[in-house]
Write a structure and sequence with these properties.
seven-stranded mixed beta sheet; 5 helices; Glyoxylase-like metal-dependent hydrolase (Beta-lactamase superfamily II); globular; alpha/beta; six-stranded mixed beta sheet
């Protein structure tokens, strides 16, 4: 089956099969959050991005192999509702952006800074600190050696624009970070996995950067 990135709460997961990494996407909870299970194909080690809600669904997706780690993209409550239960069931190590860790009620084992590398088996994910949606939001970049990059953006980037901000300075900060650390650093083919909704690519969104700047959201 071809991966589409379109999932719905209560529906089936969608699986993106790369040469070194399998990415399983599922939607959970009343805010239709996306959670992503990453599995290193060489070692079978697994990592979960955002234990957002519905621990039963997430643990069913994880299966008997468990997970080594959970990364929380940012402090907003809809992204960690199932974190305590998932960690209790799996013993996973927790990661979150350094400046958001205090807002997450489950202790963060490893605070993450810009440029830090998080590993799942033999696969490396590079963290990008993006300030604006929250003070410590992080995106995770997988630079696939066999193809184009993949970036998990949490609520910092969606199809159609950046994540929600409340003040002009937050919007400007988020846009500056997205342009410098994501759009300027990665090619158009980069696949984007957001915290809610459908996937996109940087090439699809790039022509609209000036439009986003003008509208201010």
């Amino acid at each position: 089956m071809t991966y589409s990135g379109r999932v719905s709460v209560g529906g089936a997961a969608d699986v993106h099969e790369l040469k070194d990494l399998m990415i399983t996407k599922v939607a959970v909870g009343p805010m239709e959050n996306n959670a992503y299970l990453l599995r290193c194909r060489a070692t079978d080690e697994q990592l979960l991005i955002d234990a957002a809600n519905d621990a039963g669904t997430l643990l069913g997706m994880i299966g008997d192999d468990g997970i080594a780690s959970v990364v929380t993209t940012h402090r907003h409550a809809d992204h960690w509702q199932a974190l305590a239960e998932v960690v209790a069931a799996t013993g996973a190590r927790t990661y979150a952006g350094r400046y958001d860790a205090e807002g997450i009620p489950v202790p963060t084992d490893t605070p993450v800074d810009d440029g830090d590398v998080i590993r799942v088996g033999q696969v490396e994910l590079t963290a990008r600190h993006l300030v604006g949606h929250t003070p410590g939001s992080i995106a995770l970049v997988y630079d696939d050696p066999h193809g184009h990059p993949h970036v998990f953006t949490g609520d910092c980037l969606f199809p159609g624009g950046p994540g929600r901000t409340t003040r002009p300075e937050e919007f400007n900060s988020l846009m500056d970070g997205l342009e410098a650390k994501v759009f300027d650093a990665l090619p158009d083919e980069t696949w984007v996995y957001p915290g809610h909704g459908n996937d996109t690519t940087l090439g699809t969104e790039r022509p609209h950067l000036a439009e986003w700047r003008r509208r201010g959201w």
